[in-house]
Amino acid sequence: MSVGVFGGHMEFGDNRRYWNFRSLGRGKIDFENIIRALNDIGYHGPLSVEWEDSGMNREAGAVEACEFIRYTDFEPSNVKFDEAMQKKE
How far apart are the C-alpha atoms of 30 and 45, rounded to whole Å? Predict the structure, then answer.
């Protein structure tokens, strides 16, 4: 049975679903671009992860998700590229 976006309800984890939750970095969301956009607007607030990947062990997935977000949540540069390349006199 094929199930579309609104074609019915299948249990989470059923591969016939149109989508399933995935652990951070294992799906199609480009988290790096999200972090870059947050950096661009000067966001310094918390990041919250809701982990619900039914295809992997909860504890291993939670650890992996935390490591992923720590790696991905980089500090923005406060120096423009051209300025960084200028010689200091």
Answer: 19
Distances (CA, A) of 18 to 2, 6, 9, 38, 83: 9, 9, 10, 29, 47
Question: How many other β-carbons are positioned within 10 Å of the β-carbon of residue 8?
Answer: 11
pLDDT (tens digit, 9 = 90+) per residue, 16-35? Answer: 777 778 888 888 889 889 98
What region does 81 belong to: left with phi over 0, alpha with psi -120 to 50, or beta?
alpha
Q: 47: which residues sit within 8 A by CB, 6+ positions away?
A: 69, 73
Note whether 3 and 10 are within 8 A (CB): yes
Radius of gyration over every alpha carbon of the chain, rounded to an integer in angstroms = 19
Percentage of the chain with pLDDT > 90?
13
